[in-house]
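Dear Dr. V.,

Thank you for agreeing to look over these. As mentioned in my earlier message, I'm a first-year student in the group and I'm still getting used to reading structure tokens, so any feedback on how I've presented them would be very welcome. I ran two proteins. I've put each sequence directly above its structure. The first is here:
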Amino acid sequence: MPSVPVTYSNEIRPRMFFRNLTLFRFSAPVAADLERLEEALPEHRLRPVGPLEMSTRGFISPLGRNEEALTHNVSHNTMVTVGGEDKLLPAAVVNDELSRRVQKIAEEEGRKISGRERKRMKDDVMNELLPRAFVRSSRMSAYADKKHGWLVLDTSSRKSAENALTQIREALGSFPAVPLAPEESPRVLMTDWVSSGDLPAGLALGDECELRDPATAAGAIARCRRQDLDTDEIREHLRNGKQVFQLGLIFDDRITFTLGEDLILRKIRFTDVVLDEQGDSHESQAAEMDANFALMALEFDRLLGKLEEWFKLPRPE
């Protein structure tokens, strides 16, 4: 009987490359403490959400479902994945059922419902509906570059990144990673890149940007996509006082991304130059994970080193 190629569903197979980067930094002494992750995480493994719970958070294997290991190490980089289970219980469903019960009491007993009783009834509705609610699973991967002091999270949401960081802190007892503290203003520097056309070596303009008037919160906004940014039209916006808040960039013809003034990297894509280095086949999913994690971390290592240089991002001491 001919063999059948192994395939993985999107639900089971981990995504190979990060699509967004939210970054934190940590010191060398903190990096040494990360060696405890492997032994600390099992007590904080994701458990199924309970019948009367809205959500749970915990660690799952970066290698995918049915794998036991909660960390994955390649060189000086350690990957972890925070998983979640959330009940889907729309407020409209709860409110409709509550309204039905309130109306029934009004019709049968001829009285109004007090605020306190209404709250109790809403809690009862929630408790009855929760066990029957659908559960949505989620996962967010991150890795710690212990050599250079980067915590790299695959998300563009600062809130989601902070929640994942909290999970790591709870597992270790303490993890003093801090947000980036650029000494060079990203907004000012990116505005200068576009207005002057003078970019650092290896960096080129992409085809999108977001320009805003920083004078007021409700200032004019200009968004450009699939457009040449080296034009008089763009420079005219800058001469009129707008600044660059997001900028599409190409790094060494290997990575394309959009950089925000918050230094979050979005829409990350590796070019064919990088993808051609992946190789065609691997003996196992673990071997494929190793190869792609190593390739991704190497590319990000070079890019983050340049971000550190361009924006002067100090590593905590």
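The second protein is here, in the same arrangement:
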Amino acid sequence: MSWLVTGGAGYIGSHVVRCLDEAGLAPVIVDSMSSGIRSFAPAHVPFYEASVLDREELVRIMDAHSITGVIHLAGYKYAGESVKFPLLTFEQNVTGTARLLEAMQQAGVNNMVFSSSAAVYGTPSVALVTEQTATEPESPYGQSKLIGEWLIRDQGIAAGLKHTSLRYFNVVGSGSEELYDASPHNLFPLVFAALNSGATPKIFGTDYDTTDGTCVRDYVHVADLALAHVEAAKKLEAGQELEPVYNLGSGDGVSVREIMDAVARVTGNQFQPLLEPRRPGDPARIVADGQLAARDLGWAMRHSLGQMVDSAYRASQALTPAKEA
């Protein structure tokens, strides 16, 4: 029995692959390498450079490895950039998911864990987001993830697909020092890049209705996230019913100021962040309730903020000019 991981050479996908491998679920990687990093893929794990848009290639891979389920992480994941490139976003995230579902049906693969996003909620009006909170995405990225959920649910009705979608928020940290977040848009790599170049990280907005006036976000460790994916895969393969969606959140957010203080403490760089005006559209607080996932998927916050920052910082040291060349 094997599980196909789309986007398995990415930051989150590579952690999921390693957890699957440790659990004995025999991962197989498909990655287009548009943002994946080949060295993230373990040498002994079957690897295919292919797009989820290539239905026939997906069918061939599934048949060759007797795939029993798919963890679908591949996609265009930049919410801000999706506003500039909506057609690319929908092609990769909506058409790509549809092609993958077609391939799964053709190959007789009946289990799916989908990587969704907190972006489906937009700017929630509640302090703590639950799975029942209204979905009002504000970017093509968030819209594409919600449509992906709809496609998967409809395929469940039409073809009996067993599935669940995991909505997660700000994923940080590293479960292994050689696996780092290389995104040019995420907070942690941006802060580390600024410090490494001699620049000063910035805080946008200090007058929000929060404890210290800065935005509060929900940060979760990537290794904890990977474990939840694997637990969902195991439950589906065992024939257990899961909820259609789960939030993977902390239930208690962390402010941007607290992040900066933790980075200064962990790195030993006692910087004072530059204070800038608010950016349009930044909500004061987005935090999710993860109780449902804790009940069904063993979801837990196993890492402190300090551990999240420390592991991310250690992994970021791999981002040297030699590595990027």
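From my reading of the second output: Residues 320-325 have pLDDT under 50 and may be disordered. Residues 173-217+250-324 form a domain with the UDP-galactose 4-epimerase; domain 1 fold (CATH 3.90.25.10). Does that match how you would interpret it?

Kind regards,
E.
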